[in-house]
Specification:
Elements (H helix, E strand, L loop, with lengths): L1 E4 L2 E2 L2 E6 L6 E7 L4 E7 L5 E5 L6 E8 L4 E8 L1
Parallel strand pairs: 2-8
Antiparallel strand pairs: 1-3, 3-6, 4-5, 4-7, 7-8
Length: about 80
C-alpha cells in the first residue's frame, strides 16, 4: 500500500510504501490530461519525497505505479 501526504501542499509530497523492494514510478497530470512530470521514486527506508515547488498552483493527479498496480491521488498545489 502506498500513502501520499499532504494532499494539499506548497511544495513537497511525502510518499510511504510498506514494501521497499518494489520499484515505483510516478506521473503528475493536470486535470486536462497533460503530463507535467514523471520519474522513478528512490525509496529510502520505505519513504521518499516528490518536490512540486516548481509547479503552478492548481489541482493535479499524482499516479504511482508498481509492477502490478497503480493508484492515483488528487493533489492541490497552493
Amino acid at each position: 500500500m502506498v500513502k501520499v501526504y499532504p494532499t494539499v501542499t506548497t511544495g513537497t509530497l511525502q510518499v510511504i510504501k510498506n514494501v521497499t523492494a518494489e520499484k515505483l514510478t510516478y506521473s503528475i497530470y493536470g486535470l486536462n490530461g497533460n503530463l507535467f512530470r514523471s520519474g522513478a521514486l528512490a525509496m529510502q527506508e520505505g519513504k521518499t519525497e516528490i518536490d512540486i515547488q516548481n509547479l503552478e498552483a492548481a489541482i493535479y493527479i499524482l499516479r504511482i505505479q508498481s509492477a502490478g498496480s497503480s493508484v492515483a491521488y488528487k493533489i492541490v498545489k497552493q
